[in-house]
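Hypothesis: this fold can be encoded by more than one sequence.
Test: take the structure tokens below, design a sequence, compare later.
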């Protein structure tokens, strides 16, 4: 029988939306972003943490990884041949790169998430395909779900194999189930023997599984997480979506009935990705992760932290972007000046540097939050969106900055004696970031929906006219109203620290966000969820405020606060964000710092002079010849 909550939700939501609503993670959000939606700035989540440090094991690993990348990983060859050489796999195995986050007790390196971010940034700066190989295995492959959901026996059985270098992946997507994962048609039929459950017969047609095929009919991965509906008979896969139950299984790809085919792509051409087909494959019950029917949600939970690797890898590419831009903007002279001194180009350089600062901040804070087991469900999605969008915007600016040479291949440039900057490849490699690990579009809407949860949960009491629940819910709304409609207290006497004005900005905008949400939820109630334009705005506002608060935290840290240009770039970044909230009319002659010729000129000159070179730390810079 459905509860009143479900009954109301079902009337509004049908099909996949209803399924998504019914299987939401109902744990109360405690992270920074959920507070913003209610006008609360949980600043203690920043104040409690300093910048993460690296353990000896992590430092040692980075020192061993760097020469492997420089000496053995040739990004151009990988792009040209669409193959990562056998010697690279061997070298990665040798240094333990397939067990980065696996605890040492199981033979792994036992690195923390924030340490892993440093590794991902280094990898990302050098080669996209090998980054994907390592990341798909370590971040979303078998190890993470087994660590999170698996029992002791499963950990003992799988983790040592993975740490030694067996490769894994995560098979969720299907031809008709992309964003709409509720449409998965792969199925698992329970198998009993003598009245006892012994396993499942799994039939699946998966698409785009990274690390699965080495080539047609030959697997790279020996283990895959496969998500399938649990049914008694095949026709049940067409049940109403709300009734479907999913399981997560660890499948040995050497099992009879498994086959694969490799696909080709526009970018990250060296990835081993493709179709996976399972026909009546027997999977022992010991290989099911979590309770029957709960597998999908639990497996998706492991993607929350797994998704954080992508922003860290994007940071590597963004830093490289800044380096290439700086070099070119200084050396290329047109109209008698280095092009970086013309503020149209200089502004691109400054925007790039400010994004590096902001993304580094996000990567660091989400890393320490993940290490401390703080709630990062919304924050990891936000970091993924911001990182991938900032990177693409910066790459387009880099493209403009390099002019025609950005469109020319490195080989062709080299033949003519020019700097072989691989910009066209960097763009091709980065496009897919908008799509995988949750499309930016869907994650955006999801953040909006989850941010409103408090309003829906408490507001339901009034819709259901349940007096007791209404009494419980009243304080929530009273608090939101008083917070969001009351002005902030006056400025303290004298600025407590240099960034107080921006902290105040975050508080003001968070209150405004809560105020607007209160008004529209009163009007639309749950019907707000399908209003995607509105949801996107709320989501964007909350992400921007997270970015500003992270940047303020980062720029205040010891070791960063005294770096040249840290203050100028932070101010530039914050005022650029403010512009999104309070746009300057196009014909206004009053300029904000981010749009002011004099400010931009001086910042750009300083960047050209190498004063922000510290922002390029932690990457590989191959000789530009
Ligand atoms: C190179 C590569 C590697 C990949 N690796 C893996 C992997 O290892 N494992 C795995 O399981 N999958 C993997 N994927 C699949 C990837 O996660 C999916 O492509 C992604 O989930 C989107 O699915 P789709 O391509 O079918 O797009 P669709 O679902 O068709 O979506 C198309 C567009 O419509 C939008 N959209 C869809 N529904 C809605 C809606 N309700 N409201 C608003 N907008 C909507 C989307 O945001 C998107 O922009 C990979 C894909 C590629 C290309």
């Amino acid at each position: 029988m459905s509860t009143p909550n479900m009954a109301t939700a079902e009337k509004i939501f049908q099909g996949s939306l209803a399924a998504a609503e019914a299987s939401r993670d109902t744990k109360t959000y405690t992270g920074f972003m959920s507070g913003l939606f209610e006008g609360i700035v949980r600043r203690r989540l920043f104040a409690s943490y300093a910048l993460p440090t690296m353990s000896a094991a992590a430092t040692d690993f980075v020192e061993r990884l760097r020469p492997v990348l420089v000496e053995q990983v040739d990004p151009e060859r990988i792009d040209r041949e669409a193959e990562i050489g056998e010697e690279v796999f061997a070298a990665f195995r040798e240094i333990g790169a397939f067990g980065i986050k696996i605890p040492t007790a199981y033979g792994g390196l036992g690195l923390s998430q924030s340490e892993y971010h440093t590794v991902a940034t280094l990898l990302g700066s050098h080669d996209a395909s090998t980054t994907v190989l390592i990341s798909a295995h370590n971040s979303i492959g078998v190890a993470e779900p087994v660590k999170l959901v698996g029992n002791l026996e499963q950990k003992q059985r799988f983790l040592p194999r993975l740490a030694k270098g067996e490769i894994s992946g995560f098979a969720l997507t299907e031809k008709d189930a992309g964003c709409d994962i509720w449409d998965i048609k792969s199925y698992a039929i329970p198998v009993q023997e003598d009245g006892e459950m012994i396993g499942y017969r799994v039939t699946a047609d998966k698409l785009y599984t990274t690390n699965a095929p080495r080539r047609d009919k030959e697997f790279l991965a020996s283990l895959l997480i496969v998500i399938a509906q649990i049914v008694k008979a095949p026709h049940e896969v067409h049940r109403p979506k709300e009734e479907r139950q999913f399981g997560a299984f660890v499948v040995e790809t050497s099992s009879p009935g498994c086959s694969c085919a490799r696909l080709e792509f526009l970018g990250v051409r060296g990835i081993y990705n493709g179709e996976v087909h399972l026909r009546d494959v027997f999977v022992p019950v010991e290989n099911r992760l979590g309770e029957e029917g709960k597998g999908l949600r639990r497996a998706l939970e492991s993607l929350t932290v797994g998704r954080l690797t992508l922003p860290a890898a994007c940071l590597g590419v963004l830093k490289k972007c800044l380096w290439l831009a700086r070099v070119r903007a200084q050396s290329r002279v047109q109209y008698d000046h280095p092009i970086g001194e013309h503020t149209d180009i200089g502004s691109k350089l400054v925007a790039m540097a400010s994004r590096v600062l902001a993304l580094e901040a996000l990567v660091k804070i989400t890393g320490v939050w993940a290490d401390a087991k703080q709630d990062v469900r919304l924050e990891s999605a936000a970091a993924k969106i911001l990182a991938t969008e900032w990177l693409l915007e910066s790459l387009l600016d880099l493209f403009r900055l390099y002019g025609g040479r950005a469109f020319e291949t490195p080989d062709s440039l080299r033949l003519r004696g020019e700097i072989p900057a691989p910009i066209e490849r960097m763009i091709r490699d980065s496009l897919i970031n908008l799509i995988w690990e949750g499309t930016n579009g869907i994650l955006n809407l999801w953040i909006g929906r989850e941010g409103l949860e408090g309003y829906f949960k408490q507001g339901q009491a009034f819709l259901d006219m349940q007096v007791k629940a209404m009494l419980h819910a009243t304080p929530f709304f009273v608090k939101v109203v008083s917070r969001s409609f009351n002005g902030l207290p006056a400025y303290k006497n004298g600025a407590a620290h240099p960034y107080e004005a921006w902290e105040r900005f975050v508080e003001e905008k968070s209150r405004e966000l809560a105020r607007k949400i209160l008004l529209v939820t009163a009007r639309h109630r749950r019907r707000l969820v399908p209003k995607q334009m509105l949801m996107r705005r709320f989501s964007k506002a909350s992400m921007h405020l997270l970015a500003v608060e992270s940047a303020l935290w980062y720029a205040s840290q010891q070791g960063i606060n005294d770096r040249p240009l840290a203050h100028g770039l932070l101010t530039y970044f914050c005022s650029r964000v403010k512009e999104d909230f309070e746009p300057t009319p196009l014909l206004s002659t009053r300029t904000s710092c981010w749009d002011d010729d004099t400010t931009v000129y001086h910042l750009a000159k300083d960047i050209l002079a190498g004063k922000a070179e510290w922002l390029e730390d932690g990457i590989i810079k191959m000789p530009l010849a």
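The chain has four domains: 8-49+448-581, 56-167, 169-292, 305-438+592-616. Residues 343-371 form the longest helix (29 residues).
Hypothesis status: open.
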